[in-house]
């Protein structure tokens, strides 16, 4: 089953997904009036797109409907879809390295699914023929190291670890040395889940980045921010905060298989222009999929 | 803590209202539009917001507001009351079983923070001289059991586990038997987190519920949850008939609108909030205070309570008097600082003060070292100097700096900082008088 089907499947699980609601609405409403726009606005906000982006989209939609002299309410959906696609922009995304060796830092707040995503990502990259190593950089949360090890075993990749409470920068340092010695293609580093307003933890992240910069200058470096699709507008704040500490290259959007609509993605693309690279659509090893903005919007409608 | 974002939004809205005499219908409508946006941005569910706006508007349009002499205040009153109604009216305590142990079951999505919260609640109970037992029923997430065991060891609370090969229902049952045998008066069951639409998980949770008949089924919700909070709450409540909610991760710049949503759809009280990464970061949830905080009246009651845990009341009253009469000295400052250490970060305390816009605070992280320096400087002063800092001249500064192992610059910084603090207190004292006149109870000391 391709990722598209899987995504579609994940989304059809959604009891009241956007599509259904739009269809419902459009079959009921016949004229294009304020009420129609207001209800479209409601649908977008209910999908966590956020007030700002929703207003922007609705404004664009109104303008376009006027310009194109659309009179059929059924057509409005197509235009809304176009606008969403434009905002989501760009081509299909993935996390394949442009060159090797590569170091991937995985960051994000507590409980978004960082460790799990790393396990899935290791499996994904290994499947593409890369040699993978994991670094257990979350030395803070109880048993985080054990959790990463379980995932490492499942994916069949090495995990470099220290004891709980150890200096994460030291773990990353060791992992870099091992990665060099074992000719690893991609080193994926776990980090402690940090609430983005905690200064010390953000400082720790900076320190880790310095270690990578110094010890592995030749590596292709990427930082991926893991976001939970059930998170509301706070996801934007999280993204902004992490941008302040590291250059975030992409987003891994997890837990998209529930009833959460993933509308944050639209807002993040709109306001911060950080592309979503992968999406988590289930609990299995294979449930991390490449992200295609166009297909994503298509799957919604 | 939380809600600052929302608070500043609403404050902005009401500032606009306050400036005017009587409210026109359009004013009310405009204000409600902004309240609506503020609430939506705070992730309160769209439908909940709509209901809220309707009910507040309905009351306002019932001419109460327009005929009132102070319309702005009246709107605040109505909005406040409605928010309290949404948040669940009063503080809600844990249900305690007549025959121990009291059984508490934690449920919720993955990553909501169940396991950590189980540790926090156990510590909270232990502090109140209870004997909690933690039971590890999450056999699915890798290392979840280990995580609970590590937490248990940190707070010296026993953890019952049968590994990850035994059925969670059996683990729960055996855990309670174990608790009874060992005289534990509280048994906290940590369950697996999965998606709320996962039938299998729901059935497992239902089976555990049936097997152990818990006194409390607490839904653990991430305060950062967006619109989906309503679905989650509905599913868990519909299937398990939860008894309450715990809100986690409320320490970020989380606006915490999920609190309002969850409460509105389940009608179940929020019992605790998790406010930080440390195991002691657990607070009781007070709906009325939270509402007044949303409205920018702050959470002065929480402040008082927090203070009372570490300061005895007489000292606090004394300090209150000093602030009012502006007799605040460096000695008080020193004493306050020492008490502050017991209370937690200054920033958290400041945020509870009404009208305090935390976003304007900027970087107020006071690090421990700086506090130690400050302490040293004040301790190097004579009694007279502490009572009356204005007598500190250049030579005295030099002596103080030497005595405290700091620099003159640092002494200067402290003195000017103290002067600022004193000015600020003056303003607060003034504000308090003004508010009383406006018939607004300023709940500093009842």
UniProtKB/TrEMBL annotation, chain A:
Q: Which GO terms describe its molecular function?
A: GTP binding; GTPase activity; signal recognition particle binding
* Entry's Gene Ontology BP terms: SRP-dependent cotranslational protein targeting to membrane
Which keywords label this protein?
Answer: Cell membrane, Cytoplasm, GTP-binding, Hydrolase, Membrane, Nucleotide-binding, Receptor
Q: What is this protein called?
A: Signal recognition particle receptor FtsY
Main role?
Answer: Involved in targeting and insertion of nascent membrane proteins into the cytoplasmic membrane. Acts as a receptor for the complex formed by the signal recognition particle (SRP) and the ribosome-nascent chain (RNC).
Biological source species: Fonticella tunisiensis
The root-end lineage is: Bacteria, Bacillati, Bacillota, Clostridia, Eubacteriales
Q: What is its EC number?
A: 3.6.5.4
Binding residues for GTP, per the UniProt record? Answer: 108-115, 190-194, 254-257
Q: Which topology term describes how it sits in the membrane?
A: Peripheral membrane protein
TrEMBL record, chain B:
Q: Which GO terms describe its biological process?
A: SRP-dependent cotranslational protein targeting to membrane
Q: E.C. number, please? A: 3.6.5.4
Where does the UniProt entry say this protein principally localizes?
A: cytoplasm
GO MF terms here are: 7S RNA binding; GTP binding; GTPase activity
Which residues are GTP-binding?
108-115, 190-194, 248-251
Q: Which family does it belong to?
A: Belongs to the GTP-binding SRP family. SRP54 subfamily.
Q: What is known of its domains?
A: Composed of three domains: the N-terminal N domain, which is responsible for interactions with the ribosome, the central G domain, which binds GTP, and the C-terminal M domain, which binds the RNA and the signal sequence of the RNC.
Q: How does this polypeptide assemble, per the annotation?
A: Part of the signal recognition particle protein translocation system, which is composed of SRP and FtsY.
Protein name, please?
Answer: Signal recognition particle protein
Native source species: Fonticella tunisiensis
In the UniProt record, the gene name given for this protein reads ffh
